[in-house]
Amino acid sequence: MKRIILWTAIAACAQAQPRRLTLKQAEEFALNNHPRISAARNRAEAAALVPDQVRADNLPFVTGNITGAGALDRSRIAAGGLNNPVIYDRFASGINAGMVISDFGRNRELVESARSRAGSQRQLTETTRAEIVFQVDRAFYALLRAQALLKVADKTVAARKLVADQVGELVKSNLKSTLDGSFANVNLAEATLLLEQQHNEEGAAQAGLAAALGTPTQERYELVDDNPLTPPDDDLAAMIQRASQKRPELASLRFEETAARQFARAESRLKMPTITALTSVGVMPAHVAELSNRWAAIGANMTIPIFNGHLFESRKAQAELQARAAADRVKDAELQVSREVRVAYLNALSAHQRVGLAAKLLDQSTMALDLAKTRYELGLSSIVELSQAELSLTRAELAVASARFDYLALRADLNFQIGENR
User: Fold this and answer.
1) Is there a contact between 376 and 274 (Cβ–Cβ < 8 Å)?
2) Looking at the structure, do residues 29 and 68 belong to the same domain, yes or no?
3) Which pick of 50, 214, 274, 380 has the fewest CB atoms within 10 Å?
């Protein structure tokens, strides 16, 4: 029963129509559905809320209080502090309000630092977008490559089977030796093995594209190859400059550097005074005779740091060192981006040249096979020469199929390194 269910499922999958997909559609689908995009957006939105939280420290605050107390006669708090308040029976409610009048710009710098970090997180979201698009492009071309190689393998099996059948008939007619038939069957077996290998690679490429698209279910795709083989731009210096301006990773690090410098300025103002204003109003509907039935007060306070074990100096020095480290990370990233663009450009340029060379190799291999067949049919050469010509043609066809999509994948890598694939 289980075997029947398994074969039914396999048959249903085989009969399912593959989904037609262009590269643009694949990129849009991944950007709308991949969980990494959603996670990056949530992190960016969370970071955008931090400046409001920091700024709240300098905004007015209002709290309400309801207090009741019962005490023994002539009770006082006599231990636990320097104050010595009298405790009265009472029930009261009131409102307290306060606001920081000035902290000499420390909070403002903290708010700006938080905004810069939020900007850094937004750029990380753009980085995630670029990475998702690049992964989709690479998986898309990998599947196109696997499907092209599968077609070559299938064509090779058909061609070698035809040759094996022809040689087999000649062997039966005693026009060719048994050795010739054995060589032809070996060639057919090699082609069949290649076909099985390409089936496996095509299935793996289908799974890779599904993962890049962010789909939880396995689905077969019929891809549309509508991408021209245009050569890469020959202005390498301009590409490096564009990468320095457009790469979101660099923009994120620059925001981080700005945030670190703003935080360092905020830490340098820890030694400045903080001035606050406070007010309190309320009523006491139940109280002893010594107390009034309402109260109101307003006051101001200035906190002046005098000595705290060099804590503020240490925090300031730490923040400045972190700001310098952030600047150094930007410089290091710029060097890495320059190197990555150069390597990607050289790889793409070399791959584009291989496309033309592979096409020439295919023409020569096709001509060689035609000559080898003619010589073999006339009895001027052995089956070994024909087998070698068939093998050369298969390699040339595989090289042509691979060269095209290898170049498109490397061009996608170049666009990613420049920052132009988002």
Assistant:
1) no
2) no
3) 380
> Is 352 in the same domain as 384?
yes
Domain ranges, residue 400: 20-59+103-270+310-418
CA atoms 241, 246, 251, 253: torsion sign? negative
Environment class of 43 (CB within 10 Å of its CB; exposed 0-12, middle 13-18, buried 19+): middle
Q: Which residue is it, tokens 């670029």?
A: 130
Structure tokens at 284: 């006491």
- 205 with 199: CB under 8 angstroms? no
- The predicted model scores a pTM of 0.82
Helix 178-213, helix 383-418: angle, nearest 10: 10
Instruction: For residue 338, give every residue at least 6 positions away whose Cβ sits within 8 Å of its Cβ, in sequence order, or none.
Output: 240, 243, 244
Answer with the one of 304, 324, 352 that is the final residue of a domain. Answer: 304
- Domain of 221, CATH number, reads 1.20.1600.10
Domain count, the chain: 2
**CB atoms near residue 72 (< 10 Å):** 8
List, for residues 332-366, the tens digit of each pLDDT value: 999 999 999 999 999 999 999 999 999 999 999 99
pLDDT, tens only, 185-216: 888 899 899 999 999 999 999 999 999 998 87
CA 250 – CA 248 distance, rounded (Å): 5
Q: Are 99 and 131 in contact (CB under 8 A)?
A: no
The answer to whether position 11 is within a domain reads no
